[in-house]
Structures are given as C-alpha cells and as structure tokens.
C-alpha cells in the first residue's frame, strides 16, 4: 500500500495494491488494522467508521463543498469505483496554518486511489464521466441539522476545478445557494 501525504496536514492519498492478471484484478479496498497503522505512524488519530455512503453521478454533477458542524463532524475515506471524479478537500480547521487551503486529485475506478479527509474539512467533487460511482466511509452519522455548505466556486478559495472537461455543471439548490467560506459560521 502506497501512502502519500499532501501539503495539508492530515490529508492522505492511499493507493492499495492491485493484483492484475488475465482474469481481471483484485484489491483489498479497506483493512481497519492497516488504516489505523497508517494514521498512527503519522501521529494521527485512528477513527471508527460508522456509515458507508454510495453516490451515482453523471458527468458534470458537482456536489459540495459539504461538512457537518461539531459534534457531528465527519472524517471520510473516499474513493471512486466506476468512472472518474475530481475530488477536493478544504481545510476549515480554526487555527490551522493551512486554513482555507484546498487539495484536489482525480479519483477513478482505474487508479483505485483513496483520499482520507479527517474531521475539519469541507469536501466536494465533480463527476468527470457519466455513471461515476463514489463510495465513502464516514466517522459519524449523517445529521441534517448540522450539515453546512461552502460555495464550490468561492473566489477566495480559488479551487482549480477541471471545468474544461465539463460542458454543463449540474448542482442542486443547496450547493447553488451556498456562501463563501469567510461568511460561514463553522
């Protein structure tokens, strides 16, 4: 398993080993013991996952930037099992040296990469192909009253979404009406 640390403390890219042969491929997509070891080696707290989520999106669907306020904050281990998505995490940890900074990467059914996003981050993605299926484990249950949304196109964040690949962005009202990070109450 390959682990890459990003420029934002706590955000990790995890690439499980993929065994390929003429029949196809096999990968161990999650192992609690190995995941805990990865985090503990970096001085990070190992979470307990309580919920799995699965979304299906066609090309151009943009979801986010979402997070839940404490005490319902969620860490997420995310991956794409079919299709491709540009995935983004924004640091919203008060007092963090990287507050307001973002990190993005492409997740796909082909590259098998996973992205660990601990509590204290807003998260969003845009589907780059039709029939993109996104799976993620969360460290807390969904709590609608605690859910918050930051504008995906917040000019102060200046996220470099790969919009050149998209003909039309599709969002819902919640994401269209989100406000900038500097106006958010975290």
UniProtKB/TrEMBL annotation:
<dbReference type="GO" id="GO:0008830">
    <property type="term" value="F:dTDP-4-dehydrorhamnose 3,5-epimerase activity"/>
</dbReference>
<protein>
    <recommendedName>
        <fullName>dTDP-4-dehydrorhamnose 3,5-epimerase</fullName>
        <ecNumber>5.1.3.13</ecNumber>
    </recommendedName>
</protein>
<feature type="active site" description="Proton acceptor">
    <location>
        <position position="66"/>
    </location>
</feature>
<feature type="binding site">
    <location>
        <position position="170"/>
    </location>
    <ligand>
        <name>substrate</name>
    </ligand>
</feature>
<keyword id="KW-0413">Isomerase</keyword>
<comment type="similarity">
    <text>Belongs to the dTDP-4-dehydrorhamnose 3,5-epimerase family.</text>
</comment>
<feature type="site" description="Participates in a stacking interaction with the thymidine ring of dTDP-4-oxo-6-deoxyglucose">
    <location>
        <position position="142"/>
    </location>
</feature>
<dbReference type="InterPro" id="IPR011051">
    <property type="entry name" value="RmlC_Cupin_sf"/>
</dbReference>
<feature type="binding site">
    <location>
        <position position="147"/>
    </location>
    <ligand>
        <name>substrate</name>
    </ligand>
</feature>
<comment type="pathway">
    <text>Carbohydrate biosynthesis; dTDP-L-rhamnose biosynthesis.</text>
</comment>
<dbReference type="GO" id="GO:0019305">
    <property type="term" value="P:dTDP-rhamnose biosynthetic process"/>
</dbReference>
<feature type="active site" description="Proton donor">
    <location>
        <position position="136"/>
    </location>
</feature>
<feature type="binding site">
    <location>
        <begin position="51"/>
        <end position="53"/>
    </location>
    <ligand>
        <name>substrate</name>
    </ligand>
</feature>
<feature type="binding site">
    <location>
        <position position="76"/>
    </location>
    <ligand>
        <name>substrate</name>
    </ligand>
</feature>
<feature type="binding site">
    <location>
        <position position="23"/>
    </location>
    <ligand>
        <name>substrate</name>
    </ligand>
</feature>
<dbReference type="Pfam" id="PF00908">
    <property type="entry name" value="dTDP_sugar_isom"/>
</dbReference>
<feature type="binding site">
    <location>
        <position position="63"/>
    </location>
    <ligand>
        <name>substrate</name>
    </ligand>
</feature>
<feature type="binding site">
    <location>
        <position position="28"/>
    </location>
    <ligand>
        <name>substrate</name>
    </ligand>
</feature>
<dbReference type="GO" id="GO:0005829">
    <property type="term" value="C:cytosol"/>
</dbReference>
<dbReference type="InterPro" id="IPR014710">
    <property type="entry name" value="RmlC-like_jellyroll"/>
</dbReference>
<comment type="subunit">
    <text>Homodimer.</text>
</comment>
<dbReference type="GO" id="GO:0000271">
    <property type="term" value="P:polysaccharide biosynthetic process"/>
</dbReference>
<comment type="function">
    <text>Catalyzes the epimerization of the C3' and C5'positions of dTDP-6-deoxy-D-xylo-4-hexulose, forming dTDP-6-deoxy-L-lyxo-4-hexulose.</text>
</comment>
<dbReference type="InterPro" id="IPR000888">
    <property type="entry name" value="RmlC-like"/>
</dbReference>
<feature type="binding site">
    <location>
        <position position="123"/>
    </location>
    <ligand>
        <name>substrate</name>
    </ligand>
</feature>
């Amino acid at each position: 398993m390959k682990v890459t640390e990003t420029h934002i403390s706590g955000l990790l890219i995890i690439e499980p080993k993929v065994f390929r042969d003429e029949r196809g491929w096999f990968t161990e997509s999650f192992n609690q013991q190995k995941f805990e070891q990865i985090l503990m080696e970096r001085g990070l707290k190992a979470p307990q996952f309580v919920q799995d989520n699965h979304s299906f999106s066609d090309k151009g669907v943009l979801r986010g930037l979402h997070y839940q306020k404490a005490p319902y904050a969620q860490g997420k281990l995310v991956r794409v099992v079919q299709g491709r998505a540009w995935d983004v995490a924004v640091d919203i940890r008060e007092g963090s040296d990287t507050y307001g900074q973002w990190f993005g990467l492409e997740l796909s059914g082909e590259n098998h990469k996973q992205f660990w996003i601990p509590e204290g981050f807003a998260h969003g993605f845009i589907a780059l192909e039709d029939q993109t299926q996104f799976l993620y484990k969360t460290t807390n249950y969904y709590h609608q009253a605690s859910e918050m949304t930051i504008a995906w196109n917040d000019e102060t964040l200046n996220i470099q979404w790969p919009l050149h690949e998209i003909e039309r962005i599709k969002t819902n009202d919640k994401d269209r009406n989100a406000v900038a990070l500097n106006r958010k109450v975290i």
